[in-house]
Request: fold
Amino acid sequence: AQTVTQSQPEMSVQEAETVTLSCTYDTSESDYYLFWYKQPPSRQMILVIRQEAYKQQNATENRFSVNFQKAAKSFSLKISDSQLGDAAMYFCAYKGTTQGGSEKLVFGKGTKLTVNP
Amino acid sequence: DTAVSQTPKYLVTQMGNDKSIKCEQNLGHDTMYWYKQDSKKFLKIMFSYNNKELIINETVPNRFSPKSPDKAHLNLHINSLELGDSAVYFCASSPDLAEQFFGPGTRLTVL
Reply:
């Protein structure tokens, strides 16, 4: 079974600085998707970024980028120029492809990010 | 335009009661899911449906019964509620291999 590990329960960063959140996963599949979701206090789950395993290029969305290391099964999220609105729980998630699109998301336990003014 | 909606957003009830949570998506997606987020914020799949057909049932007690009247709706009925059922329940939908879109969550409190 696939597992996702986020080793940092909490992280903090100064406004305008850069922070990296770690995620590792375990799978025997070769094709899969990885995601970072953000959950602010409103509890809404918001997709931050996604990465297809077959793509070597790291995904980027504005201030958010990932470092995807397939061989090491590592998928870290870098947030540049941190803003107060980035404060939230961040979840790393894995989605396989063997069920033709009906695969579940497997989540890590989350990292609580605090942004200090 | 709400993409994935859930009702109610808050639900407080007594132990032993039966309750339902409704979910609707207007995205035209084929697959819908229910996830449970416990008090430690851990999110775990409960069920998934594809075109009204049950695909995933993750060893959830049979007091929980999902129902999909059509592919835009996936409701969750819970019988004989227990204290441990207190959690936030999220509905989500997905078009294919892409990301899942989540509803706003329903916070269930069992007293």
Summary: The longest strand of chain B covers residues 43-50. The interface with chain A takes residues 30-31, 33, 35, 40-45, 48, 50, 55-56, 58, 88, 90, 92, 94-102, 104-105, 107 of chain B (CB under 8 Å). Chain B has a mean pLDDT of 92.
